[in-house]
Specification:
80% strand
């Protein structure tokens, strides 16, 4: 089975830019987000291949913030027919950037690497 889904939602941003201990700009706001997910679930095999990517951008009070979050994973389900509980392993790319136009200060947070966890689907 092939699942293709468009994602429309929101991300919450909370960014604080500081200079010499004094707060220069605060941003605490939701922002619209768009994305795409693709999943492949063979009917009998207890695995699922999955990928998802989301992008969001927000500009408030001279602070530009963007978020790119994407990952791919393979899920292995403990009970093949039901496919509710399982183990997940994959790779994630996460990039959050903020820039204060007035001061030129930047904040970058990036994560790239493997991950693993448990899956519960309902």
């Amino acid at each position: 089975m092939l699942d293709v889904t468009g994602l429309i939602g929101g991300d919450g941003y909370k960014v604080r830019t500081k200079f010499s201990g004094a707060t220069k700009a605060d941003l605490d706001s939701p922002a619209p987000a768009i994305g795409l997910s693709i999943g492949i679930r063979p009917p009998v095999v207890p695995i699922r291949l999955y990928g998802e990517a989301v992008y969001s951008s927000l500009k408030v009070s001279g602070v530009d913030t963007t978020l790119t979050d994407a990952y791919v994973s393979i899920d292995w389900y403990f009970i093949p027919v039901v496919k509710l509980f399982g183990f997940q392993a994959g790779y994630r790319y996460y990039d959050l950037q903020s820039r204060d136009k007035s001061s030129g200060e930047r904040s970058d947070y990036k994560y790239r690497g493997p991950f693993a966890g448990l899956v519960f689907r309902f």
